[in-house]
Each structure stands twice: as C-alpha cells, then as structure tokens.
C-alpha cells in the first residue's frame, strides 16, 4: 500500500507539474480512503520528501554510472556521457524535482549538495586526467565550479528545455562548455 501511495503521488505530479497534490486528491486517485493515506503517511510533505530522497538516490546512481562509463573515453565524449547521464536522470525524476524545488532554487542547491557530496571523489577523475598540471587546491576549485555548472546545465536541459529545442544539440553544447571550462581553467 505504501508503494501504491508513492506511485499514485508521482502520477499526480506528472499530470500537474509543479502542483503539490492534497492528501484528499491522492486518496481519490489511489482509490483508497483518506484514513489509509494517513495510516501510512502523516502528511503530503512526508510523501514528497520520500519521493525526493528516492530521486536523489537514483540521480546519484545514474551520475556515478555515467562517470564510470566516461573514464576511458575521449574528453569530449566523456563530457557528453556525463551530461547525457545526468540530464536523463533529471528527466526521469522531473515531476518530483519540479514540485520539490521550483519554489526555491536554494532547495535545489541543497539537493544537489546531497548528490554531489558522495560523487566528489569520482568527479575528480576526469578533471585530473585532463588537467594534470593543477595542484590539489586548484583542482578542488575547478571541480566545485564544474559540478555546479553541470547540475545547472543538465537541469535546464531536462526541466526547462523549450519545446522547439533539440535535446541532443543542447547536450552537446553543454558538454563543449564544460570541457572548455576544464581545459581553460
């Protein structure tokens, strides 16, 4: 039942992006009583938070996988792989990302910190390979900026892309921008 309620909430979020459903709307959509909803969750914030934490975990896993795939690729190909992987992960979880973070960009920054933290050691690999001339402090600064830029670019492509925009071209452009940042630092 818990999984059914979470899935039903996500379905409601997909139908009406950036609109937080009520527990009553959830009960109706899930075809359960309001008491059933409250038996499993004290409020909608708890449901949204659980969905957000699942999204953060899945995005972290997807980004980690993309970074691992990028290890032996040419520099531009590795950037495309990382940008594609993160963009796809943001797209997969768009409904929860929109409702969780559209009201406050600071919250997206906090969620990104949850994703970024465990990935910092992996994130060092590509810039270290491309910029062996940098000392540890300069490398840390570069990684800090590039990870933030990557999150911003990928979230824009995934969540804010105009209908007429070509997704693949945007991903390639973002990858080129990131590679230029790493190589030019």
What does this structure look like?
This protein has 185 residues and is mainly α. Helices cover 81% and strands 0% of the residues. The chain folds into two domains: 2-40, Arc Repressor Mutant, subunit A (Orthogonal Bundle); 52-184, Orthogonal Bundle (Tetracycline Repressor, domain 2). It has helices at residues 2-15, 23-30, 34-40, 44-70, 75-92, 94-101, 105-123, 125-130, 136-159, 167-184. Helix 5 (75-92) crosses helix 10 (167-184). The radius of gyration is 19 Å and the shape is elongated.
Write the topology of this structure.
Layout (H helix, E strand, L loop, with lengths): L1 H14 L7 H8 L3 H7 L3 H27 L4 H18 L1 H8 L3 H19 L1 H6 L5 H24 L7 H18 L1
Helix pairs in contact: 1-2, 1-4, 2-3, 4-5, 4-6, 4-7, 5-9, 5-10, 7-9, 9-10
Brief rundown of the structure:
It is built from 10 helices and no strands. It is mainly alpha-helical. It folds into 2 domains: 2-40, Orthogonal Bundle (Arc Repressor Mutant, subunit A); 52-184, Tetracycline Repressor, domain 2.
């Amino acid at each position: 039942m818990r999984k059914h309620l979470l899935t039903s909430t996500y379905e409601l979020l997909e139908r009406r992006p950036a609109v937080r459903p009520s527990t009553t709307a959830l009960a109706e959509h899930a075809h359960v009583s309001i008491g059933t909803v409250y038996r499993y969750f004290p409020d909608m914030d708890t449901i949204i938070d659980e969905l957000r934490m699942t999204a953060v975990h899945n995005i972290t896993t997807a980004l980690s996988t993309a970074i691992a795939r990028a290890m032996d690729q040419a520099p531009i190909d590795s950037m495309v792989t990382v940008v594609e992987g993160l963009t796809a992960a943001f797209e997969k979880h768009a409904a929860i990302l929109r409702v969780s973070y559209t009201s406050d960009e600071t919250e997206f920054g906090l969620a990104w910190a949850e994703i970024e933290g465990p990935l910092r050691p992996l994130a060092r690999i590509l810039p270290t390979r491309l910029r062996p001339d940098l000392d540890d402090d300069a490398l840390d600064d570069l990684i800090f900026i590039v990870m933030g830029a990557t999150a911003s670019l990928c979230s824009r492509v995934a969540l804010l892309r105009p209908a007429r925009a070509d997704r693949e071209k945007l991903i390639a452009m973002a990858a080129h921008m990131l590679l230029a940042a790493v190589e030019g630092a």
